[in-house]
Design a protein that fits this description.
The protein is of the alpha/beta class. Helices cover 38% and strands 15% of the residues. The strands form three sheets. Strands 1, 2, 3, 4, 5, 6, 7, 8 and 9 form a nine-stranded mixed sheet that branches. The chain has a five-stranded parallel sheet with strand order 11-10-14-15-16, with helices on one face. Strands 12-13 form a two-stranded antiparallel ribbon. α5 (118-127) links the parallel β4 (100-103) and β5. α2 crosses α4, α8 (230-261) runs parallel beside α11 and α11 (312-338) packs across α12 (366-376). The protein is elongated and about 80 Å long. Bound molecules: nicotinamide-adenine-dinucleotide (NAD). Residues 30-36, 53-56, 59, 104-107, 119, 122-123, 126, 140-142, 184, 186, 188, 291-292 line the site of nicotinamide-adenine-dinucleotide.
Length: 454
């Protein structure tokens, strides 16, 4: 898509594109978490001078000292970025220096399971007074279709100090800024696809915004995929996550049936995966975790109500997936029962508390729910996870537990594998333990009567 007219806006689009090509464009990233910090580093690697914005003073200070607070990002990477001009700040007035601003703040659910847009609105209110003519503002946070246009743009237009309007429709000569939505598609822990190989979907509020955003992302991603509006891009991300959520619910339900029928669901999935078309494998587990899959679908089901629409697949998948930690509790109870023991008073070691293998992220982890459920039933619960020496307080839990050593496993009545980190020596674990309840097929290939698939 190339715009060839010569209005002032078009000229400034060309000017910013040249600045991007020459790596002179200043890139601001708001929200230096699991999404924003790696993105800042990607731009920095491509020789852009990046400024990160975060309200968390602790993060700003760690970065200022050349440190990192994300396990898979090394201090050396931060230092290399700093040498390239990367800095972090809480001072929103520095937004004025940026050519493009990318917003990567959280989008959780509130206690009623409804979208909590307070981080997006908070950021937008803080940003609005400082935006400049021709600046590009991109939202990356996962959210329902309409957020960029219905929530963000009105605040930016109302609260900027120069009477700027968001560029809509064809190029115009009035003072404008550009707006786009581009969803983050990172898969934490996935080492098979490099981040720059994940195509970047971009929905501009108008063609120029799309062109600019594609130019910006085209400098760090191999492929950009322009779509016709921010809402299409917002919906695209939700479709991807709902697809995962629904398919995981499907295999979770079929797993419970297979357990009852004495079939191995993992063997079934492996066999089905040999079909060269029309089947994509999803795997069962102890419940959904992470910032995205348990949360994002409900952004859409909430929005759908505005249209008198009931998203039944999302609700059903949510019901099945939410039930999985209860299924794990029941399985531990049944396994202990077979050994003439009760959950009450038993010592249970939970192995792995991160929400998935080999990552340092606890958010929405089913392990936390499982620990709480076991404790409620009177179990004495310990845990081990290479990534978490301590579990303190989160949004929905307050466990205050210290990691146990991974030794003398025979002292536990049950070792419960919740997250199948690849560091674990499962043969040794099975050999030492009295009983192993395995929610992840981590003990595949090990033959022992102690193993209870769950
Ligand atoms: N983590 C993932 O793997 C992933 C993948 C795809 C999409 N997403 C989406 O990306 C978004 C960000 O997720 P994340 O995992 O990076 O979250 P995160 O909690 O790790 O990071 C968010 C950061 O934003 C900061 N912040 C909050 N309000 C702010 C404000 N007003 N101004 C400046 N900084 C502010 C927080 O302090 C935090 O550092 C979410 O919408 C999420 O759904 C995440």
């Amino acid at each position: 898509m190339t715009i060839t007219n010569h209005t002032p806006a078009a000229r400034s689009v060309d000017a910013i594109k040249i600045r991007i090509q020459q790596r002179q464009a200043r890139v601001g990233i708001i929200g230096l978490g699991y999404v924003g910090l790696p993105l800042a580093l990607l731009y920095s690697e491509q020789k852009f001078r990046v400024t990160g914005f975060d309200i968390d003073q602790r993060k700003v200070e760690i970065l200022a000292q050349g440190g990192s607070y994300i396990y898979r990002i090394s201090p050396e990477e931060i230092q290399a970025a700093k040498a390239q001009g990367f800095s972090a700040t809480s001072d929103y007035s520095r937004i004025r220096e940026m050519d493009a601003v990318i917003i990567c703040v959280p989008t959780p659910l509130n206690e009623y399971h409804e979208p909590d847009l307070s981080f997006i609105t908070g950021t937008t209110h803080a940003l609005a007074p400082h935006i400049q003519e021709s600046q590009l503002i991109v939202l990356e946070s996962t959210t329902y279709p309409g957020t960029t246009e219905e929530v963000m743009v009105p605040i930016l237009e109302r609260e900027n100090q120069q009477g700027l309007k968001a560029a809509r429709g064809a190029a115009s000569s009035r003072p404008e800024f550009f707006v786009a939505f581009s969803p983050e598609r990172e898969d934490p822990g996935n080492t098979t696809v490099a981040r720059h190989d994940i195509p970047k979907v971009v929905g501009g509020l108008n063609p120029q915004a799309a062109e600019l955003a594609c130019a910006l992302y085209g400098s760090i991603f191999r492929r950009t995929v322009p779509v016709s509006s921010p809402a299409v891009a917002e919906m695209t991300k939700l479709l991807e996550n709902i697809y995962r959520c629904v398919n995981i619910a499907l295999v979770n339900e079929l797993k419970m049936l297979c357990l009852r029928m004495g079939l191995d669901i993992w063997e079934v999935i492996a066999a089905a995966s040999t079909k060269p078309f029309g089947f994509h494998p999803f795997y069962p587990g102890p419940g959904l975790g992470g910032h995205c899959i348990p949360v994002d679908p409900f952004y859409l089901s909430w929005k759908a109500k505005e249209w008198d629409f009931h998203t039944r697949f999302i609700e059903l998948a949510g019901e099945i997936n939410t039930n999985m930690p209860y299924h794990v509790l029941a399985s531990v109870g049944a396994a202990l029962n077979r050994q003439k023991k009760a959950v009450n008073g038993s010592r249970v070691l939970v192995l792995g508390v991160a929400y998935k293998r080999d990552i340092d992220d606890l958010r929405e982890s089913p392990a936390l729910t499982i620990i709480e459920l076991l404790q409620k039933e009177g179990a004495q619960v310990s845990y081990h996870d290479p990534y978490f020496p301590f579990i303190g307080k989160g949004r929905k839990y307050d466990l205050q537990m210290k990691r146990s050593e991974l030794e003398n496993l025979g002292q536990y009545d049950c070792v419960l594998i919740v997250t199948d980190h690849s560091d674990y020596d499962y043969r040794r674990i099975v050999a030492e333990a009295q009983l192993v309840v395995d929610t992840r097929n981590a003990t595949k290939g090990i033959v022992s009567a102690k193993i209870v698939p769950c």
